[in-house]
Amino acid sequence: MAQEWNIKSRGHACLLCGAPFAAKQPCISALRESEAGYDRVDACAGCWKAGGRDWKPFSEWEGVYEKPPAAPKKEPVTKESAETLLRRLVTMGDPAMQNVIYVLAVMLERGKQLIERDAKPQADSTILRVYEHRASGDSFVVLDPRLRLDQIGDVQRQVVELLGGTGHL
What we know:
Helix content is 27%, strand content 27%.
């Protein structure tokens, strides 16, 4: 796989028939493996059930379409949140940050911002976890490095330093 992590935004129309989604409309979301990483497919339930695909999804889940939230007002002094840090680290794609990315994803899951949609065990005993952002519908593929208990303290310190602005990327 060319890229281990990525963020994919929710589609606003069915990728199969092209019809725009209505608020609260049931839909199916899926991730498909490609040469470039993962492609996200969002489809209305009827089109998805009709089939006609010549590929098998890496992961799929049912959901309800939510219109994107209004853009928040820009603050003059920005502070890094766990979510903005996670997005920045995922976009960077630095394998040295995989433990931090995983801990941030778990923090956001416990804070009810992310929903785990799937978990795919890998041959190396790691797990690829598929998360969906509750508000925006963005999907994240995060490597669960299977941290040992004696590693968690160091990773937590690194997360605190990065969130506090004293850590270095």
